[in-house]
Amino acid sequence: MFQRFRRTRLNGHLRSLVRETHVNVEDFIYPLFVRSGKGIKTEVSSMPGVFQMSLDEILKECVELKKLGLYSIILFGIPDVKDSIGSDSLCEHGIISTAIKAIKKEHPDMFVVTDLCFCEYTDHGHCGIIDDEKETVNNDATLEISGQQAVIHAKAGADMIAPSGMMDGIIETLRDSLDEAGFENLPIMSYSTKFSSGYYGPFRDVAESTPSFGDRASYQMDPANRREAVNESISDELQGADILMVKPALAYLDIVREIKDATSLPMAVYNVSGEYAMLKMAGANNLIDYDRVVMETMVAFKRAGADIIISYHAKEVATMLKGKI
Ligand code: PBG
Ligand code: ZN
User: What is this structure's pTM?
Assistant: First the structure.
């Protein structure tokens, strides 16, 4: 026999006591784009509120971030000179290396994650070295210089390395290179399940990294593949990744949940540029209640299984969370 109960509605304070998912300022990593020069803070037209900044501006920005309780950033570099192998990223005096050193010197309490890839540094805009005949990225040649880039970041003082190029075997290569150079305890957050996505459009404006020919489909994943998505992340776990990631976030929350259930590693989502731009534009045109939708979106990431959220909304969310208390 089926017995019917009348359940009490949990209102008011009790509603927050029983809430299953919480968004905290500590969950966030905020992306920053550094370029050379002085006093430069250029807003990206497709991403209102996101800027390319010179290092002096980045240092000021860190002060603002800390006031909001945000202590973690992920750094992207925009070099003055791009070439076929992305030399700037392999040089101790390159933009990223210089930026890490300056940030860690002035703000030792900031946790600095570095995006490790070549697309921002190559003149062709691909994520590695190109095979001339084939016009595709040469995986193994790219692995070799990726190891060098990781050690450059480590020596400059990076707190965590985040390879985003989706090269096969990258985690094992980086772990070996870092260990050999004496950085056994430097963690790797892998962009382990990264889809070939239209949502990266605005980022490529900021990072000036649109490929000059072809696309990234030969190394990034097909959005239609669910089992492959899980396998990619598990393969990185087996190679020694410390944190796994799904990117983009919104259209892939099923994948986040599935990987979360298949691993015991912490998980990150990257709430990418196109996702940010969509909410911004809808908000600016009064089509949605912007703050409410942003928060709802962040809760969804956590509910799906994300421990870490990389998001251009981080400052806004931090401000909203402050207002709550
Ligand atoms: C570089 C990289 C990309 C993003 C982060 N690292 C772009 C790409 O693959 O084209 C995208 C981030 C975003 O869209 O916000 N490999
Ligand atoms: Zn790349």
Answer: 0.95
